[in-house]
Design a protein that fits this description.
The protein has 404 residues and is of the alpha+beta class. The chain has eight helices and 22 strands. Strands 11-9-15-21-20 form a five-stranded antiparallel beta sheet, with helices on one face. A hairpin with a 6-residue loop joins strand 13 and strand 14 (238-240). The longest helix is centred in the C-terminal third of the chain and has 20 residues, at 336-355.
Length: 404
């Protein structure tokens, strides 16, 4: 092991001669006391390795004995240093790389989030980035106490959040606000709860404020449900509050789906263009020539690939590629059965989107072909869902007249 290190530090060369000169080469190396190693034959030649410092001795002896040889390879630290001396740009690039590595130790390379429930990690990361704590930001310049307070103040769904640095990784611990949990608001900021859509009230659950509707009432969009102005019991004045609550109502949701047997179909031509770019921290470098998109109609497919060292260690380098696929519109005629099946599939999809977090109480469906030949489905859903939305208002503090 130490012998290999010494040979690398001093440098070595590989000498190639004709196999018939084996004896002559061995005599010269023995006479000049030149150590050699790794003797091998390949491509009709005999190869041995000697130290770089012994090469002048071999050159003088070879001239005296008329030995023809070739220096096939050179390696070791002296060879590398000689190569670098002839190319000063390598030294400059190395110094710049070293300076960048030292500077990048103060940048955020990765963000790890723990505590997400309803919010996605991408949403939380976008909030952090907007607040100045994203990938590529200089974290010694971040006031984390102020950051935590600003994020909680601007995002009512976040009850608690803390960021601490572990090397170049920002570790984020958070907790989302539970429904009904009170949140601190700015002074003078209060709220009413109003209806997001028309419906018949089924139940009212008040967390703060005073309900102005009851089960069985029919309300319209924007109508007041829970008031943030609560009358005092022992005084004629009112007390403003930040009203909150849940108001379940039965709402009607009409859905109409139409599918025509004669339509245009998208057909890909097989031609496509790819544009690539790389993002290092917050800097994006375009790797493709910007010549525009040569297609009139096309689909766009975006891909993102995060770079990891050894497939395990993430680094702040992201590869982006955008594929533009050309297509043309061609006329297509489908059977009535196919039109009916496609209309039913589309209806199921729109029903799932309409129901969302609510509950379906009943539905009425009528279907058939119209006079124009279009297959049409009319569906009326009755859903049970929360129609309460918060509407903030501000109240200025009363100004008292100074006493005489």
């Amino acid at each position: 092991m130490f012998e290999w290190i010494w040979r690398f530090l001093t440098g070595w060369v590989e000498i190639g001669v004709h196999p018939s000169c084996r004896t002559l080469l061995a005599d010269l190396l023995w006479q000049k006391e030149i150590p050699f190693w790794r003797e091998r034959e390949a491509d009709g030649k005999l190869y041995v390795r000697i130290s770089v410092k012994d090469l002048p001795l071999l050159e003088g002896a070879a001239c005296d004995r008329a030995l023809c040889y070739e220096v096939e390879a050179q390696n070791g630290l002296p060879v590398i240093l000689a190569f670098c001396r002839r190319r000063p740009g390598l030294w400059v690039g190395g110094l710049l790389l070293l300076a960048w590595c030292l500077y990048s130790q103060n940048l955020i390379w990765d963000i790890r989030i723990d505590g997400c429930e309803t919010m996605s990690e991408a949403e939380v990361e976008a909030i952090l980035t907007e607040a100045g704590c994203g990938v590529g930001d200089f974290y010694p310049g971040i006031d984390f106490d102020l950051l935590h307070a600003d994020i909680r103040a601007e995002n009512p769904d976040i009850a608690w959040l803390s960021v601490y640095m572990h090397g170049t990784v920002a570790e984020v611990q958070m907790r989302e606000k539970k429904k009904g949990e009170t949140t601190e608001h700015e002074e003078g900021c209060y709220a009413n709860v109003v209806a997001s859509e028309a419906g018949e009230i089924v139940s009212v659950r008040v967390f703060e404020g005073q309900a102005v509707v009851a089960a069985g009432d029919v309300v319209m969009p924007g109508e007041l449900l829970i008031s943030g102005v609560v009358p005092m019991k022992t005084d004629t004045e009112n007390r403003p509050e930040y009203a909150s609550g849940s108001v379940m109502a039965q709402v009607a949701c009409p859905i109409t789906v139409e599918v025509s047997p004669e339509r245009e179909k998208k057909v890909y031509t097989g031609r496509e263009k790819t544009e690539k770019s790389v993002k290092i921290f917050k800097n994006t470098i375009n790797l493709s020539a910007n010549t525009g998109i040569p297609y009139a109609t096309y689909d766009t497919i975006d891909k993102m690939e995060e770079v990891c060292l050894f497939d395990r260690i993430p680094i702040p380098v992201v590869l982006y590629s955008t594929v533009y696929r050309e297509y043309e519109w061609q006329k297509e005629t489908i059977t009535p059965e196919t039109a009916a099946a496609e209309a039913m599939m589309q209806l199921r999809k729109e029903m799932d989107e309409a129901i969302g977090a609510g509950e379906m109480l009943s539905r009425t469906v009528t279907a058939g072909f119209s006079e124009e030949g279009t297959y049409r489905i009319d569906c009326l859903l009755y859903l049970l869902r929360d129609i309460a939305v918060t509407e903030e208002f501000s109240v200025s503090p009363a100004v008292r007249e100074p006493e005489a």
